[in-house]
Amino acid sequence: MDYRSLGASALNVPVIGLGTANFRGGSNPERGIGDKTAARLVDIAIERGAAFFDSGDIYGGSEEVLGKALGKRRSQVLVATKSGLRGGPGPNDTGATRHHLIRACEASLRRLGTDYIDLFQIHSFDGRTPAEETLSALATLIQAGKLRYIGCSNYAGWQLMKSLAASDHHGWPRFVSHQIALSLAMRDAEWELMPLAADQNVASLVWGPLAGGALSGRYGRAGQPLSGLKHPSATLAALPDDQWQSIIDCLGEVARETGAGEAQVALAWLLQRPTVATVFTGVSSADQLEANLDALELHLTGDQLVRLDEVSARPAPYPLVLQRSFGSERIDLLTGGGDNVRVDRALPSVGGAE
Fold this sequence. Notes:
single chain; two-stranded antiparallel ribbon; 10 strands
């Protein structure tokens, strides 16, 4: 397993971790994989060094399943969870307020069966709560020893920068990570979030790396029709059908060249993107997890990266497209040259094979 630093912190995290949202299916219990299968996936992740688990307080009991599966191995792993979305019917059962976050943290600790959380993330920006209230509450929880590090998820660039500035102004702990949707089918985060992450030394943690299974090889000319894509992380991209097909075709070509599977190629592409620290993969079987972890052995060539970049590129949004027309030589490295970010380097690893 390879490791990378979690943003500006000195914490080393594995480059692939296990997402737990489907342990009990979240809002769709019928899609849950079952506690026995979940426990087996936790075992495999630990055995192969992918001992970084991402959960959330709205994931339908996944924290409880994860906590039981870890048992006495808790100190051997890293546990991330999230809060901030609606978790109950009451007027204060949602948001990033001091009231809700402290209660949510205590509840997550009970469900996980632990006395600390390695990474506690705000699930989405709360526009009604001052950033200062959110961050001071998190600072209190860190001081109490209940949280080790803090991060956020699904923030816009200005929202993340506002939070970082508030932390700097008051001397509170900063967000060390930002969990983002990123895949060959969903590259919007590359326009502002990843340049911001590079500038402020915030780690990018990836969810939806296979776009809800769309990039797994199950869809396209040789598989199920693209019209069958229903997962939110796939439809977020809103790509034209012809671009979907082109991406899937290119994945297939690179897979044949490398002898790997389409999912492995899609994950390897992500692992070679700038600022990416960990890719969380959500799977439903041991075979899927084993195959996804094998992506660590796949290093794509510069030509293969360029082809994947080009086929998945989207037109630059304003104001980036205008800035380029004014003087592209003054644009930051991460956003200069062509549509979308084209950088064929990854963050340096700080560990080798396990």
